[in-house]
């Protein structure tokens, strides 16, 4: 499975389409969340997209490919720590988008600590996705995506 070159959508999102030999083929849909806690201080990155975000996108697309899903929208959060949902505008937008598009089945995040740092926030946020019928996946290691199960954290 190959992905086309990403296409910009309203400045905040990128839409990528899965390419099959059958252009009418449907695929399982996913959203991609890219984030960094601190705004870049490198002047070249302030004007352009930070390298960390570009790298996360690349790994996110690899994860989507490994899961056999297609990214239909991406959300970028820069300069916002992974704290309570109340303080994370792009994450709230993502959840709202998922509510309006119930066909989305996966949400792909860069790392568990960019999902939520505090265990209580982690569990609460995962419950939001679970209620929406969305599986959360992290791409901690490029070689294999990690599907999150909340009981994994509770048993350790």
From TrEMBL:
Domain of life (superkingdom): Bacteria
Cited InterPro entries: Resolv_N, Resolvase-like_N_sf
Any one Gene Ontology molecular-function term assigned to this protein's record: DNA binding
Residues annotated as domain Resolvase/invertase-type recombinase catalytic: 51-140
Pfam families per the UniProt record, alphabetical: Resolvase
Protein name according to UniProt: Recombinase family protein
Origin species: Nocardia bovistercoris
């Amino acid at each position: 499975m190959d992905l086309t070159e990403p296409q910009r959508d309203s400045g905040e999102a990128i839409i990528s389409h899965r390419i099959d030999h059958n252009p009418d083929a449907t695929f399982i849909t996913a959203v991609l969340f890219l984030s960094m806690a601190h705004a870049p201080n490198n002047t070249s990155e302030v004007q352009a997209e930070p390298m960390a975000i570009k790298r996360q996108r690349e790994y996110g697309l690899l994860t989507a490919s490994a899961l056999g899903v297609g990214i239909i929208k991406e959300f970028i959060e820069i300069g916002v720590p992974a704290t309570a949902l109340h303080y994370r505008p792009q994450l709230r937008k993502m959840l709202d988008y998922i509510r309006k598009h119930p066909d989305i089945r996966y949400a792909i995040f860069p790392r568990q600590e960019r999902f939520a740092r505090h265990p209580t926030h982690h569990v609460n946020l995962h419950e939001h996705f679970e209620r929406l019928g969305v599986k959360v996946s992290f791409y901690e290691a490029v070689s294999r995506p990690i599907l999150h199960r909340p009981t994994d954290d509770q048993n350790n």
